[in-house]
Amino acid sequence: MHTTIRKHYNLRMLWTVLTGDIVNSSDLPRRTLDAMIESLADLVRTTSGWPDTTGRDTLAGFARRGGDGWQIAARDLKNPLRLALCAQSRIRALLDEGATRIAIATDAGTAPDSFPDDLNAAHGPAFTKSGQLLETLDGRRLMAHADGHALDALLCLADHVSQGWTQAQARALSHKLSPERPPNRVIGQRLKISRQAVDQALAGAGYAAISDALATLEDAP
User: The organism sits in which domain of life (predicted)?
Assistant: First the structure.
């Protein structure tokens, strides 16, 4: 008789988990909802190339949960705020007033050797805390961190700012918020708009202040 042993990452490994659901999803056409979820999945594929806290590429996975829910898990993620804002910008870029709730937790966790392809099999404090926090988010506040304190306060402010983005601003931000920070000219080429239009969109979205805040977090020891 053979016993199958499933390998797991170290339980003490640090995971950042973002659990969310699309706001007012019942009012959306199925095609729009699917496009939003797919955009978040694509974000995670991009995130897997971001540097983590150790200087390696971030190990990240994505899973759809039910019709409008989703979850992202990233090992040793350097800056959860950047990832959360990227997620919000991608949703708003697809639909004016589109938004998602995002509950973040950073803690220990474990994942099977099939990760990142099988995120639903992952578990541990980080996953539990993120899921529980999502249940507490109401329509007024869409983003929060389970640890509270300074990072949660920063998320509260970022949440307020992101809820005011226009669709055009979100489209520009969905490119500019990545760690590579492409030039505005390149973003304009991708979106088929002028560099000046990108400049205007980013200025109106508060990108300069957002960028400074993200840099401060990422440069902290």
Answer: Bacteria
* Domain encompassing residue 173: 14-219
Q: Look at the chain and report how many structural domains it folds into.
A: 1
pLDDT tens-digit map of 107-128? 988 877 666 667 877 889 999 9
In a domain, 9, yes or no: no
Whether residue 1 is contained in a domain is answered as no
User: What burial letters (b/e) apply to 53-79, b meaning 16+ CB within 10 Å?
Assistant: eeeeebbbbbbbbeebbbbbbbbbbbb
Question: The dihedral of CA 168, 174, 175, 179: what is its sign?
Answer: positive
Domain with residue 150: its CATH number is 3.30.70.270
Residue 41 domain flag: yes
Instruction: State if pTM tops 0.85.
Output: yes
Q: What is the pLDDT of residues 186-198, one digit of tens each?
A: 999 999 999 999 9
Q: Distance (Å, rounded) from C-alpha 164 to C-alpha 166?
A: 7
